[in-house]
Design a protein that fits this description.
Blueprint lengths: L4 E6 L7 H14 L3 E5 L12 E4 L1 H4 L21 E3 L2 E2 L4 H13 L2 E8 L1 H12 L4 E5 L15 H22 L2 E6 L6 H10 L3 E3 L7 H13 L5 E6 L11 E3 L5 E3 L2 H13 L3 E5 L11 H19 L5 E6 L2 E6 H4 L11 H8 L7
Parallel strand pairs: 1-2, 1-6, 6-7, 7-14, 8-10, 8-13, 9-10
Antiparallel strand pairs: 2-3, 4-5, 11-12, 14-15
Length: 359
């Protein structure tokens, strides 16, 4: 007798903890007597049935410590249902129908979608078309309103902390200001947490527009106290008070963020005369082994997704609230960014330890 099956895919940008989710899904499904079909390369795998793979204990053995995803992922292709902050695109009806046939032929009762806001927007459209979906939130930016934390964030923030730790020594050795540009298009959680943990002196985030003169004054104050070197952490989506974010058009029609770190470095030099260098951390924040927290959170999310499917709570997304893994409707989760409160406790803590936000 053929076992009932769940499908699973990983979509959008990769991040540490994805493999822990897949391991949790497979082991929890086995406990319920279910098989798991993995679809490669995100939603695109739904259009290429030959790319699917039956996931069992053999495939998921030892994958929890590994970064990335054994299924592969993409944020391009036929299913892109989000083209920018607050902008949605509709997945074509024929693409949805082709997916429905592939899932039906594979005997899949419900599809577990692991991804960020754009992936959840796509999952919602599939759910509304009658394809049973369960969402698992994933983003290193930690900017989904419907969950207090997403896996991948802790690993990314740790990468920033490690980079700041390393920059301290070279900054003081050469009496330089060192600028570190990190990810964070609309929300500054990575810059804030990584910067505070690493002991940065200036942190610039999208939620708090900054003034170059205030940053320069913070650097000069350190010099006046005889302290050599300064560390400035800049989220890629940060912007000056009277300026714009640094956006670069791509062939897909979207905009890529980046370059604000170099601008800040030039302005510090121009205003203070201090030699300033910029490091762009980039995709190093996405790679590498997940932290303990992300391995545990990913595992809990994967198990919860299977339990939601078994309970028939389709159209739900796993959510972490008050230290408990719960669920919310996917419809309530999409298009709602969780931003850093400029007057919140975390920002105030940073200010109390003399971190400047450029405002």
């Amino acid at each position: 007798m053929t076992k009932q099956r769940l499908g699973v895919l990983t979509s959008g940008g990769d991040c540490p903890g994805l493999n822990a989710v897949l391991r949790g899904v497979v082991l929890a499904a086995e406990k319920h007597g279910l098989e798991v079909v993995g679809f490669r390369d995100g939603f695109e795998g739904l259009l290429a049935p030959a790319s699917s793979v039956l996931l069992d204990r053999t495939q998921i053995a030892g994958i929890a410590p590994r970064g990335g995803t054994i299924l592969g992922t993409t944020n391009r292709g036929h299913f892109v249902a989000k083209v920018g902050a607050g902008e949605k695109a509709v997945v074509p009806a024929d693409v949805i129908e082709n997916s429905r046939r592939v899932l039906s032929d594979a005997g899949v009762l419900a599809l577990i979608v692991v991804g960020g806001d754009g992936s959840m927007t796509t999952a919602l459209q599939l759910q509304q078309a009658g394809i049973n979906c369960i969402g698992v939130p994933k983003t290193i930016d930690n900017d989904l309103e419907a969950t207090a934390m997403t896996f991948g964030f802790d690993s990314a923030a740790n990468a920033v902390m490690d980079a700041v730790d390393r920059l301290h020594t070279t900054a003081t050795s050469h009496n330089r200001a060192m600028v570190l540009e990190v990810m964070g298009r609309h929300a500054g959680w990575i810059a804030l947490h990584g910067g505070v943990a690493g002991g940065a002196h200036v942190i610039l985030i999208p939620e708090i527009p900054f003034d170059y003169d205030i940053i320069a004054e913070a650097v000069r104050r350190r010099e006046a106290r005889g302290v050599h070197g300064a560390i400035v952490v800049v989220a890629e989506g940060a912007r000056p008070r009277d300026g714009q974010q640094m956006l670069h058009p791509t062939v897909s029609g979207e905009f890529r963020f980046g370059g604000m770190g170099e601008v800040v470095a030039r302005e510090i030099t121009a205003r203070t005369g201090k030699e300033t260098r910029c490091t762009i951390l980039g995709h190093l924040q996405r790679g590498g082994a997940p932290t303990l927290l992300d391995r545990i959170l990913g595992t809990r999310f994967g198990v919860k997704a299977v339990n939601l499917a078994v309970e028939g709570k389709f159209g739900s997304m796993v959510s972490y609230q008050n230290y408990q893994v719960r669920d919310v409707p996917i419809a309530d989760a999409v298009n709602r960014l969780r931003l850093v409160p400029p007057d919140g406790e975390m920002v105030q803590t940073a200010r109390d330890v003399e971190i400047c936000f450029g405002d």
